[in-house]
Amino acid sequence: MTLFWSIILWGCMIWLVPVMYFMLKNECKPKKNIIVGVTLPYEAQQDEAVLALLERYKKEMKITCLASLAAVVPGLFISDVGIAMTALMLWTVAICLVFFIPYVRCNMALQKLKAERGWRRDAEDASQAVTDLKAAAAEMRWLSPWWFLPPFIISLIPLFFDRSIWGLWMFDAAMVPICYLCYRYLYRSRAEVVDENSQRTIALTQIRRYNWGKCWVVAAWATGFLNVGMWLTSEHIWLCMAVILVYGLAVSMAVIGIEFRVRRLQEKLTADSGRGYYVDEDDHWIWGMMYYNPNDTRLLVNARIGINSTFNMARRSGQVIMGLILAVLLACPLAGVWMIGMEHAPVELEVTETELVGSHYGGHWSVALADIAEAEIIEELPRLTRTMGTGLSTACTGQFSSGEWGRVTLCINPQAGPWLLVKDSNGKLFLFGASEEGAVEKIAASLTAAGAWPQGGRAIP
Known about the structure:
Elements: H1 3-14, H2 16-25, E1 34-35, E2 38-39, H3 48-70, H4 72-75, H5 81-98, H6 100-117, H7 123-132, H8 149-155, H9 166-185, H10 198-232, H11 237-269, E3 285-286, E4 290-291, E5 300-302, E6 309-311, H12 316-331, H13 333-344, E7 348-351, E8 355-360, E9 363-368, E10 372-378, E11 384-391, E12 396-402, E13 406-412, E14 419-424, E15 429-432, H14 439-449
Parallel strand pairs: 13-15
Antiparallel strand pairs: 1-2, 3-4, 5-6, 7-8, 8-9, 10-14, 11-12, 12-13, 14-15
Helix pairs in contact: 1-5, 2-3, 3-6, 5-13, 8-9, 8-10, 9-10, 10-11
């Protein structure tokens, strides 16, 4: 793998570092009387001890950010795709964990200082206040499903022109109604109570509700146009990859921008809060991040800052879901290990009693002998563009396209020629190869000797 490809590979994930850095650094700014997950009264927000802890926290976050970026440099020079992928996944898992070490350290230190200074409020009083003030919030007005219908229709356009990969088009199209379901059912209709100021509660609640819907509408429309973009560029892998990259960046940047805007508004609207009564639910938030309340029957709850939602870890279902999420995160490096195996697995070609079969790393592509109409051995490969499948330097499998041949199904090692080109009775093209030297010629000779070609078919040279 060249340095260019390494930059592309790491560039797909490296943006997580500045996002996590600025997101967690933003926790230093008081929003709804909460700083780094700890609820503090107004006078504590300028306390020297609190400010010293925040300065230490910001310094540790900066060191973590720079160390995470520096760790990328050695990865740029890994030439093996599988090893590079494994390194990337290990790095991704690591930054998702190490960035929260300074956060937890600061949160625990602030909690200790809060107890020492007598700033702690009784959690039962806070919960009761939340219940009493629910009526202060404006009635929830949901966005109409019609907002999500146009992008769904747009996402179905490729199905009318290209049904060869209809499963991909349907999968992407299904993401649009899923966006609506997430918008409608992952939000918890709970008032954003900070203190006794009812107007503040209404404003904060409306801000969260509006921007929550805005995120899912953006995601739905972007997903609708993603399908069209992938269809229009399906014959040009680089353009198709660029479309996917632009889609991911556009949605991510839009959602992150909305998140920061909500945080700024929360900070502005609660700048003078905490002077008298204020809501303190810290006892229900482990390290300020994980919600744990056995007395709350809900599985989903709103995060205290921003627009996100989280799970109630006191519920068994919440524990199971979070466990699965953590398991998936920790299992990500296995994708790299799987890639290593794929990269080093041989491409094989064999003839059974009824089929010509190419195989690679558990995948199989075959043509019935009775359906072979034409076949020939080729010594040079034309320019091939991957549509769907594997495109490694040692193995190309799946659906490809060529200006000379059109669509063709591949199971080859592009470094080990010659290759066997086969056309079946339906006009479909297959290109087979093998990693073992001389294997293709042996297969061709055995097929010819066995009279496997139908009458009128082209004989193999």
